[in-house]
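Input record (one chain):
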Amino acid sequence: ALSTLHSIWISIGLDQNEIEYEKSRLEQDIASVFTNFVNSTSNKLHLMEQEIEQTLNSHAKLLQAFHHNEDEVEAILHFQFEGTLKKKLQTVKENYDKFYIKCEKQIMTFKSIQSQLDEMFDRLGIIDKGEFAEIGDEDYSMERLNMYQKKLKEMKTEIQSRSEAMKEKKKAANELLEQLGEDFPTDILLIFDSDLITDESFKEVNNFIRDMEAEKEKRIKVMSVIANEIMRLWDLLEVKQSVRQKFLHAHSTLSHDEIESCQQELDRLRSIRNEKLPELILSQKKLIQSYYDYLQIAEIEIPQFDESDPERAFKLYEDVIVKLEAEKKKCSQYID
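The corresponding structure, as predicted from the sequence alone:
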């Protein structure tokens, strides 16, 4: 090959110095290619040795993660093999793969439980997961798996308990809103529809129910005052039972509209009463007299109020009747 190259140089017309220069360049190129080849082959050797070491370390680490004894671990780390690196790499890989297959089922069980726990932690709004934050690769032991399985069971129980509790909260809230004639606010409805069960969700719902219960009590007080006066005016004006029942059936909630409707009925009844005040005041006096007779206090004169203001006089007589009714109720067990 060199003689052929020399003939080419002669044909080109190179003199001896030029031919020597070209030979020098060729030798340098050959040396560079050889060096690169040696380096590349050496790198393959080092990579193979590195892969063997990494595989052995992974095997040893997996043994430790499954709590095998130190003798087994040391035996893997100091694995002796007579033969080529290629054969050694093949052998350590095969050994590792065989052991990993034995461990794979338990590792996958860990991963499955971790995935479920992560989802449950998120659903409960728990950020600090403690020792269940991640599986890692240092402990796949049966003891730890039992701990994970126990935690999974606890979390499932907690979620079921919270879900049932939230259902009860929704039922209670719905009953309150029906009584109040109100709709669910968007934020509270979102909690129920999304089945949120975080501490914050329970706090929001509990505050909402508390506010609705307070609102219910407030409306009950308002409605009681109105209802008591309506019934007293019904009695006073001798309103028929059928009319009363019809009104009561049409007013079964504590909504703002129904409270307003009751107030309008009260205003209407007051207007009718005011038109009949003189005769109603006369009826009041007769009723007071009947209570006096029942309570055997006839020696006390029936109170007389200025009737130039009939509405005021009616109210004063009404107050006397209320007191006498209470007294009659208290004394009836001794008199009757």
